[in-house]
Amino acid sequence: MKSWVEISASRLAANYRVLSETAGSDVAVLAVVKADAYGHGAGLCAPVLAQAGARWLGVTDAAEGAAVRSALAAAGIETEDQPHILVMSEGLPEDAEALARHRLTPVVSTVEQMRALARSSPVPLGVHLEIDTGMSRQGVVPEALGAVLHWLEEHRDVIRLEGVMTHFASAEVAGSHQTLEQRRRFEEAMEQITKTSLRPEWIHAGNSSAIDNYVSDESLRWIAQVARSVGARAMVRSGLGLYGYCLPVEKEAGYAGRADAQVRSRLLPVMTWKARVTGVREIEAGERIGYNGTFTAEHRMRLALVPVGYADGLRRELSSTNVRVGGWVVLKGGRAPIVGRVSMNLTVVDVTSLADVAVGDEAIVLGEGVTADDHAQLAETIPYEILCGVRVQRMLR
């Protein structure tokens, strides 16, 4: 095998435990495995998280939820012991039958969605109602909430309000005015819900950043208090943190409090992307490397060929020139800088300073010594995009 990804089961389980311990006994942690577990493989990660204690998993859609159910069963986890699965992106009417068949819990926000579910599902279905508190993406807006609640009261025999949720747009920003406003709107929505006969079991908001930064203790207390006020349990939804990363903690302008990261130092990257060197050669000064010759050797160089490229998810922005430093791989415990352009399935690295690099040696493309944060900085993006973009065969270890 020329290139592969290793997923560390022990690190994934340890990260889940760190996040759960930080959230505390009053707040459950939903483990997000959507987008194929952020590129790590939902079929590999979901059973590990279930065995680590996760009682809720989050997926993108009904198809992904069905695949996760199959993976849990294949891992020998009995039906009654499997976690609940929340379908986090609002679906289409035709998803209703699959939701019921695979015991999935949909996120909803409109009467039309719930009517379709009621018509198509052969059994009563629990739903989680998303409140749009200011992200303007999905969820019911405050002025439409009354009609949704009225419909739920009238049809509680077929659609049960199991949870209420919102999503914070700026959870990684300490002292965020937007988050404070979103909280206020969510509290108003919950007050409106308490005036009905509906009694949700779960209230949830926030992501890994809501657990990570210094002000997270206050955030966690807030969601726990909101849940207690309606006799429900609190939950946060962690994704990126499970896989060993957190976004940098920022500060709102004018915020004078601390904004330290609390848990990121205890989280370990779960993914290691490796590739075997397929060629080694020496070139003389003046020779050019790669497409369009964007890198010219300034001295005699020893080069290694690594069989990965942008078709596999290695970002082209990691390319280098003689004036622009690019990315690197780790070989023989040292950095081997990328020279020239990352191409579709091949990348050239400089091993002049590394002893005895030979065909067949393992290069770490992403992992210890070269993280998704490193790739993201060079590509001017976020680690989410780096991890989700890796398209290489995965294996659990």
Provide a short characterization of the protein structure:
This protein is α/β, with parallel strands linked by helices and 397 residues long. 31% of the residues lie in helices and 23% in strands. The strands form six sheets. An eight-stranded parallel beta barrel has the order 2-3-4-5-6-7-9-10, surrounded by five helices. A four-stranded mixed β-sheet has the order 20-12-1-21, with no helix packed on it. Strands 13-16-19 form a three-stranded antiparallel β-sheet, with no helix packed on it.
Characterise this structure:
With 397 residues, the chain is α/β, with parallel strands linked by helices. The protein folds into 2 domains: 9-257, Alpha-Beta Barrel (TIM Barrel), CATH 3.20.20.10; 271-396, Lyase, Ornithine Decarboxylase, Chain A, domain 1. 31% of the residues lie in helices and 23% in strands. It has an 8-stranded parallel beta barrel with strand order 2-3-4-5-6-7-9-10, surrounded by 5 helices. The chain has a 4-stranded mixed beta sheet with strand order 20-12-1-21, with no helix packed on it. Strands 13-16-19 form a 3-stranded antiparallel beta sheet, with no helix packed on it. Helix 3 crosses helix 4. The longest helix has 18 residues, at 177-194. The radius of gyration is 24 Å and the shape is elongated. The two termini are 16 Å apart. 47% of the residues are buried.
